[in-house]
């Protein structure tokens, strides 16, 4: 399963931190950002993906994160 999220993350260093936080809770997930995209895309791939938790983690770190349909 793959979920795609729109974020407001701007810096590569921030993406590394966010990925590390998510990976601590969900080590099997494949996670990447596309900061070149106008929506600053966060892409997460995994089995039984808990997308609401992903949004909560990113929001708690001070960034916006919205699931794209």
TrEMBL record:
<protein>
    <recommendedName>
        <fullName>HMA domain-containing protein</fullName>
    </recommendedName>
</protein>
């Amino acid at each position: 399963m793959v979920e795609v999220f729109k974020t407001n993350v701007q810096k590569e260093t921030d993406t590394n931190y966010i990925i590390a936080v998510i990976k601590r809770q969900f080590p099997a997930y494949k996670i990447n950002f596309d900061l070149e995209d106008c929506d600053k895309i966060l892409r997460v791939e995994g089995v039984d993906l808990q997308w609401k938790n992903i949004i909560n983690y990113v929001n708690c770190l001070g960034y916006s994160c919205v699931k794209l349909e």
